TrEMBL record:
Gene3D superfamilies: 1.10.340.70, Ribonuclease H-like superfamily/Ribonuclease H. It comes from the Eukaryota. Residues 95-273 form the Integrase catalytic domain. Its EC number is 2.7.7.49. It comes from Nesidiocoris tenuis. Signal peptide: none annotated. Residues 342-358 have a biased composition (Basic and acidic residues). This is RNA-directed DNA polymerase. Residues 333-434 are annotated as: Disordered. InterPro entries: Integrase_cat-core, Integrase_H2C2, Retrovirus_Pol_polyprotein, RNaseH-like_sf, RNaseH_sf.
Length: 434
């Protein structure tokens, strides 16, 4: 306040207390005991946590809260303080949604029935097991008498006895596939089981999409076997049908056709590779994907689908999969199904910076009620920096240190002050504001 009324020093180096305000000194004014930045009210550091809580009423996003702040109040580093406050909000973290991560393109199999996806589905009160080949897209469906692992194993044995044993079986995290009984069966038959993350159906996308197709057939077609025959004989984008890719021949249908054999596995492999690359590009572009920050052991997180808080204890053997320990047990979830808790110092950065330079020259005595009306604040003694406690968590927003003889921007660029004729000369504050 004293600098606003009596004039500013020629440079911020002459008074380090003015560093945060020297660049905007032309916008500061004193009116009726209040400090104004344009038409916005300056908030001292003691009141900033309260103002931040008011700005975040309704738990709006970062940009909306920033706009609300810019319309009414101001202090140095306002935008960063708003971001840090919202990042530390537990309620926002609990209900936030993660952006979709880039698609992990799986390698196309080199031969038919090498990689197979499996999924258990339900329709019209019945349970069925669907298996679909990743190379040919050929589906096999079996009605199950129960949803136990034993029933699933018997159905798999029946299908594998016709088409052979696959090398890789991709499944979801259903109890039928994660049970000890099924794992022992897969090991005895020399099958490598890839279990997707719970609540993350994209990890077994082919089987999931195949289940939707089969459900449509069950709803539309009176004879399910005629529907399966039509699906298995319909050409794919490669020009060959699933039956041709799996069996090496055309199967006979209701439509008259020439039975010509074809063996174009190499050509199909190249076409499918290009198709998957285009699919990956379209997926990433459509969903505006963004890589999520990896989680570290010991980090506190929130699992939305389980409505549980937990602590990360490590990663799984599968990509983007983490093991999280909660009060109810250990969960395995994909990174996209985990909300990370941002550990930040709730105090604004500017408050921590200004605490080393108290009292501030622009702080209003009527607001803080700490400086008598006619007293002049004494120049504080600069204290050496104190090392952080080992368990102290620093704010993720980093800024360059203020050099005692130089001025830097927030991005770290050195500001070279221009030499303007008469600009740095002492001027009457009233004439300067005019």
């Amino acid at each position: 306040m004293k600098c606003i009324q009596q004039g500013w020093p020629k440079s911020a180096e002459q008074n380090p207390l003015t560093t945060n305000f020297f660049k905007v000194r032309g916008n500061l004014a004193y009116l009726d005991g209040l400090i104004l930045y344009g038409e916005r009210l300056y908030i001292p550091h003691t009141l900033r946590p309260f103002i931040l809580s008011r700005l975040h009423i309704g738990h709006l996003g970062i940009e909306k809260c920033r706009r609300r702040a810019r319309a009414a109040v101001w202090w140095p580093n306002l935008n960063n303080d708003v971001s840090s406050y919202i990042a530390a909000c537990d309620i926002c973290m609990k209900y936030s949604t993660n952006p979709i991560e880039p698609m992990i393109k799986t390698d196309f199999p080199t031969e038919a029935w090498r990689e197979v996806g499996a999924d258990v589905g339900y329709h019209d009160g019945k349970t069925y097991l669907l298996l679909q080949d990743y190379f040919s897209r050929y589906p096999e469906i079996v009605t199950l008498k129960s949803i136990t692992s034993k029933a699933v194993i018997e159905a798999c044995k029946s299908i594998f006895s016709r088409h052979g044993i696959p090398v890789v079986l991709r499944v979801d995290a259903g109890s039928q596939f994660t049970s000890k009984e099924f794992q022992q069966y897969a090991e005895s038959w020399n099958i490598r089981v890839n279990v997707g993350s719970p609540k993350h159906s994209r990890s077994n996308g082919l089987a999931e999409s195949g289940e939707k197709t089969i459900k449509k057939l069950l709803k539309k077609e009176v004879d399910i076997y005629q529907g399966l025959l039509a699906y298995r004989s319909a050409p794919l984008e490669s020009g060959l049908s699933p039956a041709e890719l799996l069996m090496g021949r055309r199967i006979r249908t209701m439509i008259p056709q020439m039975n010509l054999s074809s063996n174009k596995e190499k050509e199909i492999f190249e076409k499918e590779t290009r198709l998957k690359s285009r699919q990956e590009l379209n997926f990433n572009r459509r969903h505006k994907v963004r890589d999520l920050n990896p989680l570290s052991p010991g980090e506190h997180v929130w699992i939305p689908d389980a409505n549980q808080q937990g602590t990360v204890i490590g990663t799984s053997e599968y990509p983007r999969s983490y093991m999280v320990k909660t009060d109810n047990g250990i969960y395995r979830r994909n990174r996209g199904s985990i909300n990370a808790r941002r550990h930040t110092d709730v105090r604004p950065d500017s408050q921590r910076e200004e605490e080393d330079h108290q009292p501030s020259p622009v702080e209003d005595s009527e607001i803080t009620d700490t400086v008598p009306p006619n007293s002049v604040p004494a120049t504080p003694t600069k204290t050496p920096p104190v090392a952080s406690e080992p368990n102290e968590v620093e704010c993720p927003v980093s800024r360059p240190e203020t050099h005692p003889t130089r001025i830097y921007t927030r991005s770290g660029r050195l500001v070279k002050k221009p030499q303007r004729l008469g600009y740095d000369d002492p001027v009457d504050p009233v004439r300067r504001m005019s």
